[in-house]
Structure formats: C-alpha cells, structure tokens
Recover the amino acids of this structure.
C-alpha cells in the first residue's frame, strides 16, 4: 500500500508503518479478498483520502470515525462523509441537526464533507476499508495500528488541535492524546441509537471555533457549499 499516493507531509511520520509486518499482512489480506471477488470500499486510490486532503501541518481538527460506510457508492475515504448524490446517512443527519442548533447553519442537501477536510479537519476512520454489506468486516486486520500512528503524529504537532471524539470507541482510541495541549471534545455518538444521550446539545462546532480563535488559529467554516 506504500505504492498508493500519500501526501508528502504524512510520509515521514508514517514511513515505518508501511514496512512493518502488520501492514504487510494487511496488504496481503486485502489482495486476497479482492482476488476472491469481494468488493472492498472505498476504492484503493481513496484509502488515504483523509490524509491527502488534509496534510499533517494543516490539521486543526480531528473527527474520528470507526469504519467506512459499507453501502454501494457511499465510502470515499472521509469519516461520516458520502459522495455527492448519495443519501445523507442517519448519523450525518444528526450532525447537521447539531450544527444548526449550535451555529444556525441549515442542513446541507448533500453529505459530501470535502469542504471541511480542505480546511484542516482530518476526517479519519479507525479502519480504512470494509467489505460491501459487511459492517466492521475489516476490524482487527491492522488498520487500527496504522491510524493510531496517524493520531500520534497529530498529537505531536507543535500547534494545538481539536479532537472531536464521538462515542466510546473514538474516546478509547484517542485516550493518549495530550489534553493539556489540545482540546478534546467528548460526547455520545451521533448515531440515532445514541444521539439523544448527549450528542445533541453538545455544541462541538462552536467549542472548536472558540478554541481555535483563542489560540490565534483560523476557525473552521462549517457551512458546506451547495453542489
């Protein structure tokens, strides 16, 4: 997978990961699955889309997801985001509800979050691939170690970053983040199963921008453009 294009900013801190035995095993697993005719999402050129759209030195916010969407045409390498023209998933619908309640921004008519990524919002999933229609099918295959290294690289940046951790899984994964240097925002997950248990009303977007402003960093324009 080292042959998949990766932004130069990420190559140095992640270089050792690509030669590690776990990454070689992961590559073999993915190759074998594809050879068996299984459909893997997102496509190979988009495995590292979150990193390529948000170079390391530009990261101001991390929104940590768990797995790519496993439906046809949904996943494209950014957590919580779907391609233009794809129905907005339920968790993202709730994210939009909270965005409106928090900042008065009306829900976008699409679920394409690239506008956030290009401003320094790292939309990172813990696991970067999935088999079609098989949720969590690639958990425990090695991606978690790789994305831990991504989070460590962000944690080590000289400037402060906002980590938005929705749900117990994200909070456990990023438990080592330096909360004295960075802002760590924790709440329930935006899934319909849990959004009413502390996600709705948590105001992560205004908290993020207040923190960035306080550190002399540009706030995020959370309003998505029309497509």
């Amino acid at each position: 997978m080292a042959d998949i294009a990766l932004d130069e900013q990420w190559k140095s801190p992640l270089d050792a990961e690509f030669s590690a035995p776990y990454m070689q095993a992961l590559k073999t697993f993915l190759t074998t699955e594809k050879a068996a005719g299984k459909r893997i999402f997102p496509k190979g050129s988009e495995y590292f889309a979150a990193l390529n759209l948000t170079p390391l030195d530009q990261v101001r916010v991390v929104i940590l997801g768990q797995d790519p969407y496993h439906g046809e045409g949904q996943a494209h390498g950014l957590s919580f985001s779907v391609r233009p023209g794809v129905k907005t998933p339920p968790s993202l619908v709730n994210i939009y509800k909270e965005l409106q309640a928090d900042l008065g921004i009306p829900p976008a008519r699409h679920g394409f979050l690239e506008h956030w990524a290009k401003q320094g919002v790292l939309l990172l999933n813990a696991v970067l691939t999935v088999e079609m229609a098989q949720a969590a099918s690639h958990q425990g295959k090695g991606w978690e170690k790789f994305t831990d290294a991504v989070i460590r690289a962000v944690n080590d940046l000289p400037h402060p970053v906002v980590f938005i951790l929705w749900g117990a899984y994200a909070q456990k994964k990023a438990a080592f983040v330096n909360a004295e240097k960075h802002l760590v925002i924790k709440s329930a997950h935006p899934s319909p199963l849990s959004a009413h248990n502390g996600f709705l009303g948590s105001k992560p977007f205004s908290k993020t921008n207040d923190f960035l402003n306080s550190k002399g960093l540009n706030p995020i324009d959370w309003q998505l453009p029309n497509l």
Summary: The first helix runs from residue 8 to 19. The CA atoms of residues 74 and 82 lie 5 Å apart. The first strand starts at residue 40 and ends at 41. The helical segments are 8-19, 21-35, 49-53, 90-103, 114-117, 143-155, 168-173, 204-214.
